[in-house]
Amino acid sequence: MEFPSEIDITKLDNTEDNLPKPKTFEELFKECFVDLDAPVKPLDVMVYIGIDELGCKSPAITRGEISCIYAPSKAKKSFNKSLIEAAFIGGNTINYSDLIIGNRKTDGYVISVDTEQGEFYATNSFRRVERMVGNRYEKYMPFQMRKQSVKDRLRFLDYLICNSKYSGNIDIITIDGLADLVTNTNDIETSAELAEKLLQWSALGLHICFILHKNPGSQKARGHLGSVTTIKCETMISMDRLIGENGEGEKNTVKISCSHSRGRDFEDFYLTVNEDGLPFTHSSETDNKFKKPGYVEPPLKNIDPKEAFKDEEVPF
Fold first, then answer.
1. pTM here?
2. Pairing mode, if any, of strands 109-114 and 140-144?
3. How far apart are the first and last CA of the chain?
C-alpha cells in the first residue's frame, strides 16, 4: 500500500494566505440554485442496512451523506463499523451478514480512522475487515490516531480529504471516535464547526460514518457534539446491550435499531461476535449461533419409541 511520503504542512496551517477566499454572490448563486427541470441524480446506495417494513433492503448509507453509529460503552460499535466497511468492499462478507450488504460500484478508497484504541486493539479491528472479506483490498487505508493531538487529527483528515492525491477518489470514511476531533464535546461553537466540516467533506462525493457514545441511561448521543451532528445524519444506527432476566448484560450479542432515517427505517436486528472474534448478524435475538459457510443442519434421526424412553414404559 502506498502512503504519502511528504505532506505540505503549509496547506494544513490556517494562516490568512491559506484560508479560502470568500465566495462571491454569483458563485454562491450558481452552486446553490436548483434547476427543477434538470434530471435528478438517482440515490447512490453504498451499503444497505436491515430490512424495512415492506421487506425491502434499507438504503441506509449513500454517497454524499453522513451517518452515525451510537451506543453505550462496550456495545460492539467497532464491530459494527468493521462489518459495514467489509460489506462495502465485498468478498466473503456475505457469509457474516445478509442484513448489512454492500453495493460497491467504484474502486475508491475506504478510509478507517480510529482515534480511541491503542495500537493492539486498533490493529485487530482493522484486520477484522480483511478477515471477513477474505483478502486485502489495496485501497483500504487504516489510521490509528490515538497519540495525535485533537488539532493534528482534524488537520490531517482535512488535508487527506481535500488536498491529498486521494482527494476525489474516496468512497467511505469511518471515524471511530468523532468526539476526539474536538477538545470539548459540550462546546456549542466547536461542535457546530465540526458538524459543518463533516457536511463539507461528504459533499465531495463520499460517505462519512462516525461513532459516538450514548448518554448513560439515554437514547441520545453524548454532549452538544452529539446533538448538532446527529441531526445532520442520513441514518442513525442505534446499538444497545441486551439485558437478561437476572439484570445482567449479554456480553456477546447486541441489538441494532434505526433511531431515525431520511429513508425508510429498518427493523431491529442483532449482532453477535463469533468464537473467531468476527461479527455476524441475525434477525432473531436467540439465533446467535454462527453457521460457517457450507454448514448444513444435520437431518433429524427417526428412532424407535423404546429407544427413546429406554426401559421405561412407552406412554403411547
1. 0.83
2. parallel
3. 70
d(CA 22, CA 146): 34
Q: Is residue 187 part of a domain?
A: yes
The CA-CA-CA angle for residues 47, 51, 52, to 5°, reads: 110
- How many domains does the chain contain in total? 1
In which domain, by residue range, is 266 found? 43-292
Q: In 3D, which of 283, 254, 261, 237 has the Cα closest to residue 55?
A: 283
Residue among 124, 85, 88 at smallest CA distance from 106: 88
Nearest-angstrom CA–CA distance, 155 and 175: 14
pLDDT category at 3 given cuts 50, 70, 90 is: very low
Q: Kindly list the strands in the beta sheet with 100-102, ordered across the sheet, starting from the edge strand earlier in the chain.
A: 61-62, 45-49, 100-102
What SS3 string covers 116-130? Answer: CCCHHHHHHHHHHHH
Q: Give the length of the chain.
A: 316
Residue 27 inside a domain? The answer is no
Q: Residue 315 falls within a domain, yes or no?
A: no
